[in-house]
Design brief:
Blueprint (H helix, E strand, L loop, with lengths): L43 H18 L6 E6 L1 H13 L5 E5 L2 H13 L5 E5 L16 E5 L1 E2 L4 E2 L14 E4 L16 E5 L10 E6 L1 H9 L13 E2 L2 E2 L14 H17 L1 H21 L4 E3 L11 E6 L2 H4 L3 H17 L15 E5 L6 H25 L1
Length: 391
């Protein structure tokens, strides 16, 4: 390829981090001036703000009747751990993993909860496990979108409506960006700092009527930490799902999440959020398709993420390097673009294959993705030139 000249136009927003994600367009710290600060979150007005976040989330996602939504400590990890510790145990469990976070859930089911009948279905980065092997007479644990691999489930058709077990879904980088078939989901978690670009430390837990029934009819054999307790006296602690959090939340982070939800409502709700993420991912993947040195890590196009898009460098000269040298090459591209103020935090996840990871969620403007593309070509050419000189 000819060595491209250094581009003149930079993205207006260089924040392409996959979590915490970029703030929404128009975000301003002054938007948080109404935060309920210096008061107890258990005061009437504090609980009202927390309930407002729950109500807005339910409305924006279009949750079916009977589903409940609550604010949990510990981000998505805390919310999902609470779900596993409360719901798993009475049946065998199938756990799907195709990147680092899914592998954590496999390890937790086997090593921490020590459930005797666990089957782990794992796949390499870039691919999904064989979904046809999942047994829905068992409980099933999976991620909707593998943040570190850029691989999502293509749909929910593989999950039967008449399943016997529960489905537990980690959807932290999928919710608000990809369609969720709620009839196929019994428990879903996500975090504020992912798709909507909120602040960290809090997660959301959504439960179906089937999951609530499990909570009220099953008592796990292991001790439950206070931060995970969802029932009392054999009944769901309903207050958790109306704004009374288990522990003290950050009301400043809450206000930031409310601001993101208000922005989403103003631009057209869930359809608009989906459309923005789809447009961003299409802009990036169209460039990938016409660019010889790069490819999408996801093998099957139907499984390509539209949020955390993971890319691998396929240039023969780079592929021929050892693993450490390949990683160093990718990091040199990341460092160049960071120094230029063009793209922040676009390196691949630490456990993933060396490459790039570019966030395309709805808080990103498509014009910024478009402006980034020539910079990627320039940085690759610069890194390739340095590699040739060092040879």
């Amino acid at each position: 390829m000819n060595h491209p000249t250094k581009p003149d136009v930079r993205p207006a927003n260089p924040h392409f981090s996959s979590g915490p994600c970029s703030k929404h367009p128009g975000w301003n710290l002054e938007n948080l001036n109404s935060a309920f600060l210096g008061r107890s979150h258990r005061a009437t007005d504090g609980k009202a703000r927390l309930k407002l976040a729950i109500d807005k989330t339910q409305a924006l996602l279009g949750l079916p009747a009977g589903y409940v939504c609550g604010i949990m400590p510990g981000s998505d990890t805390g919310a999902f751990e609470a779900a596993m510790w409360n719901l798993l145990g009475p049946r065998g469990v199938d756990v799907l993993a195709w990147e680092s976070f899914g592998s954590v859930w496999v390890g937790d089911a086997i090593k921490q909860l020590r459930i005797e009948n666990v089957r782990g279905f794992e796949a390499d980065y870039g691919s999904l496990p064989d979904l046809s092997r999942v047994d829905f007479s068992r409980d099933v644990v999976f991620t909707a979108n593998g943040t570190a691999a850029g691989v999502k489930v293509p749909d929910y058709d593989w999950i039967p409506n008449d399943r016997e077990g529960l489905t537990l879904l980690d959807a932290t980088s999928a919710v608000f960006a990809q369609p969720i078939d709620w009839a196929k989901v019994d428990c879903l978690t996500f975090s504020w700092q992912k798709v909507m670009g909120g602040e960290a430390a809090h997660g959301m837990l959504i439960l179906s009527p089937r999951a609530i029934e499990r909570l009220e009819t099953y008592r796990p054999p292991w001790p439950l930490p206070k931060l995970f307790r969802l029932t009392k006296g054999g009944k769901l602690i309903a207050e958790i799902f109306t704004g009374e959090t288990i522990n003290t939340p950050s009301m400043l982070a809450l206000e930031d999440y409310l601001d993101a939800l208000s922005w989403a409502e103003a631009i057209g709700g869930l359809p608009a959020l989906h459309a923005r993420a789809d447009a961003n991912a299409k802009m990036l993947n169209d460039w990938v398709d016409r660019t010889a040195w790069i490819d999408n890590l996801a093998v099957d196009r139907a499984t390509r993420s539209n949020t955390g898009v993971c890319l691998k460098i396929v240039d023969p000269d780079v592929v021929g390097l050892n693993a450490d040298a390949q990683a160093a090459f990718a990091k040199s591209i990341v460092a160049m673009l960071d120094k230029e103020g063009v793209a922040k935090d676009i390196g691949s996840y630490r456990d993933a294959p060396a490459g790039l990871r570019i966030w395309c969620g709805s808080t990103i403007e498509t014009s910024d993705v478009e402006a980034l593309l020539p910079w990627l070509d320039w940085a690759f050419a610069e890194a390739k030139s340095a590699l040739a000189k060092a040879a």
